[in-house]
């Protein structure tokens, strides 16, 4: 359906769709989003929030990625499409967990796509489930608003026989790039995190190496009565003492949650130590970003379904990160977690 037809339909229903709203008037409770990723552009003093495209919000009927913009983290523009899967591409769904990373002067999009009609040879170890092609692929553009074009025709970063998702860029102390990602529980029963070294063109140059399995964390609980443990959304940060910290999500006693593991040595391959639940009640797939005044902030989505963005002030300590308070003045959450104090 074209924009004109969508607008006519919405007008008859008595409400304008999100993409037809005046710029800068949306707030987080109005923005249906999952796996949010925020980039702070200090040059233009603009926050960019990336998520999977929703046609009812962007006005573009496409499997892709859309971006909201804000100058204050409270008032957001209607989203615009910055990437879409091309016709005839091997994947026909997904665009989950879009991330934007600056590398060698260009912006690289890491995004997870899949096609359930392309089965893998290896069956799922989970009864009643099956494996199919799901991979993190890359796209590139010179500007954050794209348009982003697939790198290497959209070939997966790691072997297409592996169900990989939520790939993120990690640059080690020597300046070498890696992709850290989750390997799907559908293929392993117990999901895991792994890393593959990349060259300067962000092409894999070696086999993947295991970081840890989801059952290494006591907070992650088996699901579905089949021993399934989910691993989602890895994000890596280094603190002043040189230790390395990884935000990630799973399911536990209180639903979807955000947690942090850390490698005291600073080595990507650990050994890793695992912290408690950081945020629960459907909170997860978070990432840390710096605000325009250089403060740390966490963005997560909650609840898991019909998700909305939630913002938390974070304090960096020598050996980790501390949640300070939820910024309800920005996310306007009617049921906040961790009010805290500043």
UniProtKB/TrEMBL annotation:
Pathway: Glycan metabolism; L-arabinan degradation
GO MF terms held by the record: hydrolase activity
Secretion signal, residue range per the UniProt entry: 1-20
One family name in Pfam for this protein: Glyco_hydro_43
Membrane-spanning ranges: none
InterPro entries listed in its UniProt record: GH43_arabinanases (IPR050727), Glyco_hydro_43 (IPR006710), Glyco_hydro_beta-prop_sf (IPR023296)
Domain of life of the organism encoding this protein: Bacteria
Keyword terms, alphabetized: Glycosidase, Hydrolase, Signal
Similarity-based family: Belongs to the glycosyl hydrolase 43 family.
Designated name of the protein: Glycoside hydrolase family 43 protein
The organism of origin for this protein: Pelomonas candidula
